[in-house]
Specification:
With about 325 residues, this protein is α/β, with parallel strands linked by helices. It contains 11 helices and 15 strands.
């Protein structure tokens, strides 16, 4: 399949490598705001065409578009590409609000096109392994999902700069960038919570640097922690009366083990290279296109909206309860 690429960051490079490896994808064009960044990216990945005009890019000879622009632009770019007859796979978060997700989903449905989220958790085959392992835990009383990764841009922030990832005007920040990976397994494994509590520490720019949320399911509590100003090395856990599932990376679903209450260990999800995991995103995306949707596509669409609603609630509560560093 021929792809156009919007965005020239490292995440686009990982998607391209994965899509080529698992699907034999052909990258026909790239869009960037500047000719310099677009040209350098095109040279790196042997992409024949570079566009700096989004309208001209939308007319390009390719069937699908991978979007990795700033979060604030996800909806605008998705609508433009869908309106041009392109299938869309857009980086997480799918859009800046549930309303924008619905808008794009309705446009895709109207035009008979595929519009889905590039989220490693949902497309990894290890998701099914994790879900199938839950009965091993017995009665599940709680879970803790964490994604705390010190941002490479934090030093620039401390120097007084405002990197994009810490600029709330672009709908960025810790919850949108990392917390989404914690919300996904919570909603996928346990459904929509009965109630939510949340808090955050906001930086001088107004972006959330770290945050947490408590999701109450009546019979269990699921806590989420996420930070771009600190680094986690402990991982994530799901606790039951028959054992614990330990997950090194909740975003990539790798190095996960079941530890029984007698201390014995069973490997669940082994290590997989990130570009291969992102290749799974491309593979399922292409399967959605060839089958004109299907059960998994409907599930992914429902999950994107459900996660978007939970994140909107967390954002709203955090703005009320949060503090400034």
């Amino acid at each position: 399949m021929k792809y156009g690429i919007i965005g020239t960051s490292w995440i686009s490079s990982s998607f391209i490598e994965g899509a080529k490896k698992l699907c034999g994808a052909e990258i026909a064009a790239v869009y960037s705001r500047t000719k310099e960044s677009g040209g350098a990216f095109a040279q790196k990945h042997s992409i024949p065409l570079v566009y700096t005009d989004l309208d001209e890019f939308a007319k390009g000879d390719f069937e699908a578009v991978y979007i990795a622009s700033p979060n604030l632009l996800h909806c605008e770019h998705s609508l433009k590409m869908l309106s041009a007859g392109k299938h869309v796979i857009c980086e997480k978060p799918l859009a800046a609000s549930p309303e924008e997700i619905i808008l794009c989903q309705n446009k895709a449905k109207e035009l008979g096109l595929i519009y889905t989220e590039a989220i490693m958790y949902m497309h990894s085959p290890q998701r099914d392994v994790l879900r199938n392992a839950l009965p091993m835990l017995g009665n599940i009383s709680s879970a803790h999902f964490d994604f705390s990764q010190l941002s490479s841009k934090y030093e620039a922030y401390k120097r007084g700069e405002t990197p994009n990832i810490f600029n709330p005007a672009l709908a960025t920040g810790c919850l949108n960038d990392l917390g989404v990976y914690c919300v996904y397994p919570a909603v996928d494994l346990f459904g929509m919570p009965k109630s939510i509590k949340a808090d955050a520490v906001f930086l001088r720019t107004g972006a959330d640097g770290s945050g947490n949320a408590s999701l109450n399911y009546g019979d269990k509590l699921v806590t989420l922690t996420y930070s771009k100003t600190g680094q986690d090395h402990a991982g994530s856990f799901i606790y039951g009366d028959e054992g614990t599932i330990v997950i090194e990376s909740v975003s990539k679903l790798i190095n996960a083990d079941f530890i029984a209450k007698d201390g014995s260990k069973t490997e669940l999800c082994p290590y997989i290279e990130k570009d291969e995991i992102m290749g799974y995103e491309a593979r399922e995306f292409e399967e959605f296109i060839s089958s004109q949707g299907g059960e998994k596509y409907s599930l992914c669409s429902e999950m994107s909206l459900a996660v978007g609603k939970v994140m909107e609630t967390i954002r709203n509560i955090s703005k009320t309860e949060g503090s400034y560093a």
